């Protein structure tokens, strides 16, 4: 018997593939002129200075899909800066992530966060998944390229079975649905896309030991080519669950090539995995850690 709430939500979906301009897709949420839509809507830049960062959010809400964004991160000494691209439900969009105290039991979120560092040191790519207000599922990576020299594509594939994080179409993480084992999974609440650039030098760079050098400000990160091949929540949709199921992302997993690539990434470039942190979980690792080869 299908969940009536989920069935009702799906009946209000539009299946859409969009790659329109940032004018059409996004709203600037904070930072004023520090956030700029450029090149007739094809590019968007976020800046951070000593007074404020900046951010934007999608006009649409999505329930499952493939969401792509190209980013070029803050160059040079980016210590203390955090650049983000993520989807979230139950979030105060007018405040940067670090200033929001998430208390709602219904909070869902899927995160890409890019933690800057001093010149010559690599960015840390921080990923996390929240469901029903529960997070603490962090994995972190260093990249195999310079993310400040050119644009690269960061992707969230989200369906009812799993979440896949990809970089330039290379899978770096899979978080599977283990609701049958009591692990919450975000699958019934629509989420918006968010992005921001803000100062987090109290914790982001080497645990807060390296502070932001404001002589390098303003710091700027660039976004372009947002694409949403996704279910858009809307009251006028005539989409059905069968249409949704025909989308490639609706059942996307890892084939043999994908398993080889994610094994390479996690072996060579992963720097933190919550499923290996026995000090953090002295009473036993989270239940999903023993149920999936790739998380």
From TrEMBL:
GH16 domain location: 1-223
Biological processes annotated in GO: cell wall biogenesis; cell wall organization; xyloglucan metabolic process
Keyword line: Apoplast, Cell wall, Cell wall biogenesis/degradation, Disulfide bond, Glycoprotein, Glycosidase, Hydrolase, Secreted, Signal, Transferase
Subcellular location field: Secreted, Cell wall; Secreted, Extracellular space, Apoplast
Single GO MF descriptor: xyloglucan:xyloglucosyl transferase activity
Post-translational modification, as annotated: Contains at least one intrachain disulfide bond essential for its enzymatic activity.
Enzyme Commission number(s): 2.4.1.207
UniProt main location, coarse: secreted
Glycosylation sites: 117
Signal peptide positions on this chain: 1-19
Catalytic residues (positions): 109 (nucleophile), 113 (proton donor)
Gene Ontology CC terms, in alphabetical order: apoplast
Family from the record: Belongs to the glycosyl hydrolase 16 family.
Function: Catalyzes xyloglucan endohydrolysis (XEH) and/or endotransglycosylation (XET). Cleaves and religates xyloglucan polymers, an essential constituent of the primary cell wall, and thereby participates in cell wall construction of growing tissues.
Name this protein carries in UniProt: Xyloglucan endotransglucosylase/hydrolase
Species this protein is from: Mikania micrantha
Species lineage: Eukaryota, Viridiplantae, Streptophyta, Embryophyta, Tracheophyta
């Amino acid at each position: 018997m299908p969940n009536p709430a989920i069935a009702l939500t799906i009946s209000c979906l539009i299946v859409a593939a969009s790659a329109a301009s940032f004018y059409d897709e996004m709203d600037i949420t904070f930072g004023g002129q520090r956030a700029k839509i450029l090149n007739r809507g094809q590019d968007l830049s976020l800046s951070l200075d000593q007074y404020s960062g900046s951010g934007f959010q999608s006009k649409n809400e999505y329930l499952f899909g493939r969401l792509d964004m190209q980013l070029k991160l803050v160059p040079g000494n980016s210590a203390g800066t955090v650049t983000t691209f993520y989807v979230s439900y139950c979030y105060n969009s007018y405040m940067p992530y670090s200033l929001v105290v998430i208390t709602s039991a219904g909070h869902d979120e899927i995160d890409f966060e890019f933690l800057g560092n001093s010149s010559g040191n690599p960015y840390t790519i921080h990923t996390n998944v929240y469901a029903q207000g529960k997070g603490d599922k962090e994995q972190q990576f260093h990249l195999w390229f310079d993310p400040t020299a050119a644009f690269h594509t960061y992707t969230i594939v989200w369906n009812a079975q799993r979440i896949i994080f990809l970089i330039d179409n290379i899978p770096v993480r899979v978080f599977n649905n283990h609701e049958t084992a009591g692990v919450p999974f975000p699958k019934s609440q629509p989420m918006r896309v968010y992005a921001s650039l803000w100062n987090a030098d109290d914790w982001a760079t080497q645990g807060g030991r390296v502070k932001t050098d404001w002589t390098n400000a303003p710091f700027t990160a660039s976004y372009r080519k947002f694409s949403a091949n996704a279910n858009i929540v809307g009251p006028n949709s005539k989409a059905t669950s069968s249409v949704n199921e025909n989308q490639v992302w609706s059942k996307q997993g890892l084939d043999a090539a994908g398993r080889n690539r994610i094994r390479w990434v996690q072996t060579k470039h992963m720097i933190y995995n919550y499923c290996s942190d026995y000090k953090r979980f002295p009473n036993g690792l989270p239940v999903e850690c023993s149920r999936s080869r790739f998380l």
